[in-house]
Design a protein that fits this description.
28% strand, nine-stranded mixed β-sheet, single chain, three-stranded antiparallel β-sheet, 5 helices
Length: 250
Amino acid sequence: MVYTIIVCLLAIVLGSLIILPFVVIPVIARFKMRFPYESGLVLVSHEYLPKYISEVFSQTWRMVRPDGFEAAMDVLEPEQEPAMTTTYFRFFVNPKERDMALAMISIGGSGEEKRVTGGFMEFWTEFASGNKITTNNNGTPTAFKDVPESQIFRYPGEMDLRALYTIHQKNLSAYGGGEEKILPPEGDEFQYMRDSLMKDMELQVQTGYLYLDQSLNMYRPTWKGAFLMMWKNVIGTIRMKYGTPKKSSS
């Protein structure tokens, strides 16, 4: 009798651990998850950046400048629900190597209790075909589906940015196929960044993960997308905690 009770309790606990992340959360995501159709990005002068953000971006520039990167613009994405997160970006270009880079820091919380909620650095290269290869140190698990047009390699915890750029160059040699690199025309970096974000979302529509809800003017997950994205997020968290860096799509 005692053993039966113990087995039943274990079954209930294990069932709860499985049902919550693999069933309940995807259903909630299906109805609650939203991605804006319009990026909402805003150009901002570096003089108006919060002191901490400005210092980190300046330090980042000092680290990548020896490899030929120049700071092109600062951009922010205003507060987004539900965590009221504001995200700051600094966009870099490398005219000689025809590569790009992006530093990102997000600040979340309410009132005076704002805190850093995320941040990463990525290098990417776009080709004349429209395909691109990205290398970053983002530690947040990916959820979107892998797409051949956008190969992304993630190395969480790699804080040596020059080493990360060297890894990116190796990835280009291995997977770039010798294609011609392209850069946005000088002065068009902001529109290029907006267009790139929209292209990434449209690629996820093509995979069946998202659809455009025209009544809300926002992207929402399909049933397929909600379940697969949440499952991928859980598995990605486990891999990042216990495994080794792997290629991903986002």
